[in-house]
Each structure stands twice: as structure tokens, then as C-alpha cells.
Amino acid sequence: MKTLKRLSQIFEAAEEIPFDDSCRIVFMSDCHRGDGGWADDFSRNQNLYFTALNHYYRENYTYIELGDGDELWKNKRLSDVIQTHSNVFWLLSKFYLEGRIYFIYGNHDMVKKDTKFVERNLYRYLNERENRYIPLFENIKIHEGLVLRYKPVNGRIFLVHGHQVDFLNDRLWKVARFLVRNLWRPLESYGINDPTSTAKNYYKKEAVGKKLTEWVVKEKHILIAGHNHRPMFPEVGEPPYFNDGSSVHPRCITAIEIDRGAIVLIKWNVSTKSDGTLYIGREVLAGPRKIKDYF
């Protein structure tokens, strides 16, 4: 019950963002952007992600990242991640300049809750090739949770990463980070998976989903989360716990979109045309459903 209470405290303290049926919003999480090395899970999907992000930028979506955008357990320096994936950060900065982006931190980028860390590492970055600092997300605020208020019915949607219901990845995150950096990361090169990872452990996935659903039932609010990398899209009448999945699935990335009052779960993957040509396509996995039907 303590974990549910902790979620409620984050919900009550969260900044509120109003929206209506004219708005377009996309939720993505668990990108785990790395340094380009063998342990960078994001690298294999970076083209999918960049294509999707370009689409959302052109179509005037607001981008909300629900935590673990950057892999800062395996990697000590965020600057290495930014340099490696500079094209992604360039595009994200364009969203920011237009007021169309919000970041929530997760367990793997928990250091972003430190405002001094954010100021040093995200306000600007050093372009090593040009040897000068370039503005990135000046004066940005990184959130633990956010609340969307759907104006047509005055209903609220809670946005959070979801690690708060996972004791090891929340209260003991520094211990978990130490184990990942010094034990499980080296062993992964031999094909041994990290048993503490929620994303790679079926039972931990289930436990996280169950606890988040319990909060939804108890508090009677819609919840959109990430963390366990397991996409969730309830039918109307079921507890409204949604999960956007991740950007490090083996062959695709998943996201949740809100478009003119409807919510949908989608994936981006490489598909093949009849002539054998490969292309990156968007596919609906579930929905659309009217948001108002979940309140």
C-alpha cells in the first residue's frame, strides 16, 4: 500500500496540463538512448525512432517522454549519449523551442531529478567537433509525474514512469545502478540477462502492471505509464491503465497517441512492399477509442 500512496502523492503534486479535442499528443518511453556501444539497446531502433519523431513533429504533436529516455545506469556521462544521438536531440530541441515537449524521469535516468544535473547536462551541450556549447533545453524542468486535464469532461490523466511501484528500482535505485554498471552489464556480453530488470523478467512485468492497475482502481483515474516495456491498452469498462511499451523492442517501437479526443496504441516497424522495397511504417495495435468513454 505504501507504493500506491507514493503514486497518489506524485499525482497530487504534479503539474497540470489542460488539453481538448483539438490537441495531438504522443507518449513514448524507455528509449534507453546510450553511447553507441554494444550495450546501447536504442541503436538498433534509432532509425525507427527518428522517423516516428519526424512524423510527430511535422503533424504538430506534443511529445511527452514517460521516463528512461536516456540510459544513465550503463553510461556515466549524458554528454556521450547526446554526442552519439545528436540528430535525435536536435529534433527534440525543435519540439522544445515550440513548447511541445515534456520529460518525465524514470529509474534509469533518475539523476535528472537533480536540478543542478539538468542545468549542467541538458541546458546546453558541448559540440566537440566545433568546440562550442550549443543550446539544447535551456531552463527545462524534468518531472516525476504530470497530470493531463481533459477539458471537455474535466477528467484527469496521470502520467508517470511507473518504477515507483518497484522497490528495487525506486528506493534502492543506486544499488540497482551499481549492480547494472559493475556486474550485469559485463555479463550481458556473454548472453546473461540481468535478472533484476523489469523489462526482461516476465514476473516483474506482471507485478508492476498489477500494482499500477490497483492504483487506477483505487483512485479512479486514467493512468499512462512505461517502465515494464509491456504495451497495455484496456477496453472501455476495464481499469484504464495504459502503457506505451518501449522503443527497444527487438523489431519495433511502440507509442500511445491522443488525436482529437481519441486514444490509440501504435507501433513503428520495418515493413516490405510487394516489390521487396523496405520502408518504415506505422501500424495500429489497439484503438482508437474515445477518451471520454474512459471517464
Q: What features would you describe in this structure?
A:
- The chain has a single domain, classed as Metallo-dependent phosphatases (Purple Acid Phosphatase, chain A, domain 2, 4-Layer Sandwich), CATH 3.60.21.
- The chain contains 8 helices and 14 strands.
- The strands form 3 sheets. It has a 7-stranded mixed β-sheet.
- The radius of gyration is 18 Å and the shape is globular.
- The two termini are 24 Å apart.
- The model has no long low-confidence stretch (mean pLDDT 89).
Task: Draw up the topology in text.
Layout: H1 2-13, E1 15-19, E2 24-28, H2 46-58, E3 62-66, H3 78-84, H4 86-97, E4 101-104, H5 115-121, E5 124-127, E6 132-135, E7 142-143, E8 145-150, E9 155-160, H6 167-170, H7 173-188, H8 202-219, E10 222-225, E11 241-243, E12 252-259, E13 262-272, E14 278-290
Parallel strand pairs: 1-8, 2-3, 3-4, 4-7, 9-10, 10-11
Antiparallel strand pairs: 2-12, 5-6, 8-9, 12-13, 13-14
Helix pairs in contact: 1-8, 2-4, 3-4
